[in-house]
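Repro case for the chain-ordering regression, as requested:
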Amino acid sequence: MEKSLIIKNLHVEVEGKKILKGVNLEVKQGEVHCIMGPNGSGKSTLAKVIMGHPKYKVIAGEIWFGGQNILELTPDERARMGVFLAFQYPQEIAGVNFLQYLTTIYNIHLRQMDPGVKAMKSFKFKRMVQPYLEELRMDPDFLNRYLNEGFSGGEKKKAEILQLKLIKPNLAMLDETDSGLDVDALRIVAEGVKGMLSSEMGALVVTHYRRILDYIEPDYVHMMYDGQIVKSGGCELAHMLEEIGYEWITADTTV
Amino acid sequence: MMINQNIFADLDRDVFDHRNVSDYMKNYQAGLSEELVRMISGEKAEPLWMLEHRLKSLKAYNEMPIPAWGPDLSDLNLDEITYYAKASDGQSKTWEEVPEDIKNTFERLGIPEAERKILAGVGAQYESQMVYHSLQEEWSSQGVIFEDMDVALREHEELVKKYFMQCVPFNDHKFAALHGAIWSGGTFLFVPKGVKLTMPVQAYFRMNGPGMGQFEHTLIIVEEGAEVHYIEGCSAPKYGKNALHAGCVEVFVGESARARYSSVENWSRDTYNLNTKRAFVDKDAFMEWVGGNLGSRVTMLYPCSVLKGEGARADHLGIAFANTGQTQDTGAKIIHAAPYTRSNVVMKSLSKGGGVSIYRGLLQVMPHAHDCVSNVECDALILDDQSRSDTIPDMKIANSDVSITHEASAGRLNEEDVFYLMARGMNEEEAKAMLVNGFLEDIVKELPLEYAVELNRLIELEMEGSVG
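-- result from build under test --
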């Protein structure tokens, strides 16, 4: 089954406040889409709603993935179908060992591929994961720490991409993965994602800045404003946004 | 190290709930009487002073009221408890000699395998009697004694007489008096001066018959400069008939000695676990209590450290999990009875499905005990709207030259954490179990790896059905 994402007329509110006001979007399997827009336009909300965050209430519209309406599915069911969200602010969870955690989510992925497969033990996983750590320039000592606890901003983003690499989803949503990264970290993270892009894995890149697009070239760029996608185009739209900023957009701007 | 994880990895609820056919139970009657107390003492061929101690305790028990504070004990019908039962005729030094059905029970619980891999010695009690006891030659040759209490009373009478119920007096409270009257079995552990056991020793207590009472006595003496880690495990199958556990643990930690007592108590949901544990800690000695309470219908357990000598220290680390129908009333009692003594208490409790967990603590500083330091931290995690948690700390501070901190927190699982884990493919139950294990990690990491795995597994079992 083709793992395409189709969003139709999506309206979402949180705590009584309308955030998304009729979003339409189609990301075919393997395509790379970028969503740009000013703060508060609803970019991050869109990614979280696709993942199934319980805080956001869908009041109208549909989200289809892989030919199935996923609105009624729990976040884990969506994850196991191949949807992945790299968080803007990954949770710090004290007491949960990073290695044990990674082993657990990796085994969930393995089981998804082959229900009869035997779970990988953490000591074997530890060896298996080494090349990924090297590629992302992560200290292997991180495995002994608690999940994201005390990780710097850049380390957290690398840890998210590490998980992306382990889970190998069909749709990678990156929620401002580039923000707060220095030039080197941005390059490592962005190249890490780029290396995975294929006809099997597309991406939905949510960003405020254009610079990540130097590494991950999008097929489409969408501009979001006040809960709607107000303009769509190719890479040239991202360049234009950088040149002239977001100020010129108003709610009246037509697609 | 990784290989050993498998000892307890496949545990499930059935392992603990499994009952053995128990023919021997028909030989024993419910109820408590002087006749029964005399019978127990006679059957064990005890010295006269012990019989006198039992009778004195029985009198105190009959005269003392049920505690007026704490959880409701009105459903516990003390006349229906079988206070004494033996399932086999003797005690064995090898598992081969242990009767097949009893051996199978302990095999299922992983005890013989743990002994082969990680323990210096093992004791196993079934109903009122120790059925197995063994200690590696390496330690016995250095003067370490690890015996069934009944055997110790015969073979080391003077030593037992010197310490027995000197830490927990027979009239401490009603259930201590009951224990003094009908105690049977348990562990005697003596570590002579300067001997440091590098491997833990373990005792496992198993109640098997319906309506049983188990009253084992654990007496641990760690002489000057010696070190030991003692682990206790407890379980019982469920019958729908109330059972009673009123054990007693006494630990004497000599000057500069170190004792660690770890226990994972997983009694059945119809057990009243009214347990008394106390340590006397001498000069510069260190006592550590690490405990997990998961089972039972009602638990009342407040391990106590009496810091008797200058510079004595105690750590109390505890986990309590109260699920549907359970009350975990647990805590710590610390008595700073000398200057420069230090205590550290970390308690974590979980309440789920209507369960009630209560932290009840006493921190006492005697008038002459200057320069004491005490930190108490209790964290409660409440997993749903039906469940409850309370903190009841009591402080009696009679010296102003002390440093005391007390922190308490109560909260729920963070929804963003749950979403984060679910977004990576864990279902809600798995995500919550992982977060709960993370909440408990500070304490679980103090357990030997194998027991930490066992405890994590038990927590996962308790978390099943948490999504509703």
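Ordering looks correct now. The radius of gyration of chain B is 21 Å.
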